[in-house]
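## retry 2 of 3
previous attempt timed out at serialization; input unchanged, resubmitting
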Amino acid sequence: MKRFVFAAAAVAVVSSMSAANAADLGRRATMPTKAPAYVAPIYNWSGLYLGINGGGGWGRSSVSGALSTGGNFNTSGGLIGGTLGYNYQVNQVVFGLEGDVDWSNLKGSATCAVGVTCEAKNNWLGTARGRIGYAFDRFLPYVTGGLAVGDVKTSASGLGSSSTTKAGWTLGGGVEAAIAGPWSAKVEYLYVDLKDASAPLGSSTDFRTNIIRGGINYRF
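## retry succeeded, writing output
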């Protein structure tokens, strides 16, 4: 009887030790898992935006007719204004519409008759343009073009002045970069052509300018 009790106790001890070893092996087999690395989402340029812009311009103008400058003369000055636009992104291609209106001080003058000086000046300039760009995540180079509208005021010393709102065209390109949250910054170049504005004595003025400006936009 004693032998039976001793054998049973031995079997119980061996069984408990085997179960403990098995539990230890199970715990060792469970390896700690590491959280997946965070990947920042690709920037999306789609949406409505508002902004401000400012810069400078230089160009060439001419007066022809009864008053004539006999060729082109230089114009230059600064401009500043506001921007409204909308982008729609398909994969990496970004399509957009953008409009702006700027106060302008682009002007220049030349002799247009004996003892008469003619000045051509642009007081305000607006554009309505299409844009197409290719997004490299937060960096967007683009080309743009469309309608340009502005006033051209031609003054002739001693003979008065004439001001006309003219529609023309503009073409250019630029780069825009997302800087923080919904904010982005851009630099762009535009060529603007406003032709055949009225001038004193039935003359006409052509106004052409190159514009380089920067801007800050807020995307909604």
